[in-house]
Amino acid sequence: MLNHPLDPSALADFDLPADTSAEALRLRAELEAGLRARDACISPKFLYDALGSKLFEAICEVPEYYPTRTEAAIFERHGGEIARAVGTGTTLIDLGAGNCAKAARLFPLLHPAQYVPVDISADFLQDAVERLQQRFRHIEMNALGMDFSGGDWQLPDVVRSERRLFFYPGSSIGNFTPEDALAFLRRVRAQCGADGGILIGIDLAKEHAVLDAAYDDALGVTAAFNLNVLRHANRLLGADFDIRAWRHRGFYNERMRRVEMHLEARSSQQVSWQGGSRRFEAGECIHTENSYKYRPSDAVGLLEQAGFAAAGVWQDARGWFAVIHARAIPPGAMH
Length: 335
Known about the structure:
Elements: H1 22-36, H2 50-59, H3 67-86, E1 91-95, H4 101-110, E2 114-119, H5 122-135, E3 140-141, E4 144-145, E5 164-168, H6 178-190, E6 197-203, H7 208-214, H8 221-237, E7 246-253, E8 258-265, E9 269-273, E10 276-280, E11 285-292, H9 296-305, E12 308-315, E13 321-328
Parallel strand pairs: 1-2, 1-5, 2-3, 2-4, 5-6
Antiparallel strand pairs: 6-13, 7-8, 8-11, 9-10, 12-13
């Protein structure tokens, strides 16, 4: 590991990014800005490179991580009712689609006219869609590798405008602060059209011990997932993070009503990348993810503020998770 700022003669030692597109440059600038911030941070979207996406699949299999199987149980139990509420023949826009498995399980119920999976991990997404298209040849599919987490993102013209149903499962909305979640949902509402809506998964508030275990499993899969973001940063920025010099921290912050994930430096160290560097002292952390937990009434209220009207709310028997279908409110009917 280099103990001084990176100089041009050392560039050959790193896997420097070759992509110089505007989007790639913007993402690298965002990543570097987070590392330079007073309280260092990395956006959770950078957790999902190809390896990170596969590690998240593994997280969903560990016994402590309840959200995926709890949400799946809601769809299994209430799928017919949800399908009747949503209707068939929609333009199904799957935000943060990953391996597309969650949406695929709904195809026999929803029979979408078009499936549009969206994910920042474009290569991983494309592979998943190619496999899925072999199973559902009758459904038009258009994969979009894009960052929808911030800014004024817009869906391209290839996405049908009729009956858009945004699918946002897994409680990913919890990664946003409540203020950013509202802004995000308003951007979704703006692209719904007059007859669109959203089907969203919301993780609900519950016992602290359940939450702590879910984000710091005994097998260490979540730790590997979190630490992999440093490997991703090394690749994107040409940085020299020594992954062995960091440890995973995941815990519930009661005051903020959120689970937090951090990476903590095991020792004092200098981290360098193309054009910059930063010293981290032992015990200093990089904040990588938040996961806010909602009460059902707060989740419905958030959707209403964004311009949606909740049409159905389905929960598991323990009240750990909710799936909400909300319709876009016509602009003239909003108060």
